[in-house]
């Protein structure tokens, strides 16, 4: 049997899909082949919010899965809508690489070293809100495109810096180009950032069993809490929400720490809170923290600029 692993066409997507395919072969001995599927998010470089936001990168791969054209779909977990999809099983969440955001700035600078008025590119409302909340006098400039396109804006001198996911840079072998890795407690990553999602058809027991070997329990618990918070806030992947959870060993009992940020890209005061609980209950921790954030006003904050 040869497993057909579906991937988007971008350099990042094919790299991470081949890494999953290689891991699958290593752990289970099964043969794999990559099948490229083109998605609306790749074909269209208008702002994500305009072309459907949540899920534009994901649905074409899921369609190929349901149509039986591929057996496995590999996504960046942070691109995955929180709502479950009919007939689709999230069969594996491999070990998270790196949750952090990275800065690539001109002349090796860090964010703090950039002079006031510097132009920093990101297309993410979450990054925009947190960059503004740092109060550094930076001008945040909208940006889309693949990793290469974004970095080239700094190399061309069009921007002073860009902020992007460290995991993407690592997977592409370009992490050395980062001039700063932002502390994930200071600039909270997107829920699921740095983790991958491996899906199969819900009724495909055989592939589900193979993929289960790739699942990492601690990563699965952390991203489940992060995504539960996002779902309970009724926010999508393009909302100004950051969340990061870690499993910590508290005298032999495994605890999950979840920290969250909700903001407003235009700079209204933001909300930061954290919660902890048993690693057995990631969904409950996310729900409780979301309720606390809503009680503090997260709801109206996130929707302040909604169209
Ligand atoms: N927003 C798009 C996206 N989706 C996943 C990644 C790569 C990193 C990851 O796996 O979280 C990126 C690029 C980025 O945010 O810089």
TrEMBL record:
Task: List UniProt keywords, sorted A-Z.
Answer: Porphyrin biosynthesis, Transferase
Give the top-rank taxon of the lineage listed in the UniProt record for this protein. Answer: Bacteria
- UniProt xrefs under InterPro entries: HemC (IPR000860), Porphobilin_deaminase_cofac_BS (IPR022419), Porphobilin_deaminase_N (IPR022417), Porphobilinogen_deaminase_C (IPR022418), Porphobilinogen_deaminase_C_sf (IPR036803)
Entry GO CC: cytoplasm
The residue ranges of the Porphobilinogen deaminase C-terminal domain are 222-294
**TM regions (residue ranges):** none
**Catalytic activity from the UniProt record:** 4 porphobilinogen + H2O = hydroxymethylbilane + 4 NH4(+)
Chain positions found as S-(dipyrrolylmethanemethyl)cysteine: 237
- Cross-referenced PROSITE patterns, in alphabetical order? PORPHOBILINOGEN_DEAM (PS00533)
What detail does the entry give on cofactor binding? Binds 1 dipyrromethane group covalently.
Enzyme Commission number: 2.5.1.61
Matching HAMAP family: Porphobil_deam
Q: Reproduce the miscellaneous comment text.
A: The porphobilinogen subunits are added to the dipyrromethane group.
As for what it does, the entry says:
Tetrapolymerization of the monopyrrole PBG into the hydroxymethylbilane pre-uroporphyrinogen in several discrete steps.
Q: What's the protein name?
A: Porphobilinogen deaminase
């Amino acid at each position: 049997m040869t497993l057909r692993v579906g991937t988007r066409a971008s350099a990042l997507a094919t790299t991470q899909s081949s890494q999953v395919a290689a891991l699958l072969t290593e752990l289970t001995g099964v043969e794999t082949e990559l099948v490229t599927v083109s998605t609306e998010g790749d074909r269209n470089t208008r702002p994500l919010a305009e072309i459907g936001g949540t899920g534009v990168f994901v649905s074409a791969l899921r369609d190929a899965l349901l149509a039986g054209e591929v057996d496995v779909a590999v996504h960046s977990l942070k691109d995955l809508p929180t709502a479950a999809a009919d007939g689709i099983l999230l069969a594996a969440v491999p070990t998270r690489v790196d949750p952090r955001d990275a800065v690539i700035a001109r002349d090796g600078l860090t964010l703090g070293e950039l002079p006031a008025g510097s132009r920093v590119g990101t297309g993410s409302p979450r990054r925009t809100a947190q960059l503004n909340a740092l109060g550094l006098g930076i001008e945040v400039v909208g940006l889309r495109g693949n990793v290469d396109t974004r970095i080239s804006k700094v190399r061309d001198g069009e921007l002073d810096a860009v902020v992007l996911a460290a995991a993407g840079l690592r997977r592409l072998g370009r992490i050395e180009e980062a001039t700063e890795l932002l502390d994930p407690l200071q600039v909270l990553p997107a829920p699921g950032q740095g983790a991958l999602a491996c899906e199969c058809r819900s009724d495909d027991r055989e592939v589900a069993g193979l993929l289960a070997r790739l699942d990492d329990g601690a990563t699965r618990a952390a991203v489940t809490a992060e995504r539960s918070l996002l779902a309970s806030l009724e926010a999508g992947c393009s909302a100004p929400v950051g969340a990061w959870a870690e499993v910590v060993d508290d005298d032999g009992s495994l605890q999950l720490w979840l920290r969250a940020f909700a903001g407003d890209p235009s700079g209204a005061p933001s909300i930061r809170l954290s919660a902890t609980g048993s690693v057995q209950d990631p969904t409950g921790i996310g729900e409780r923290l979301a309720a606390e954030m809503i009680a503090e006003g997260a709801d109206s904050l996130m929707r302040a600029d909604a169209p």
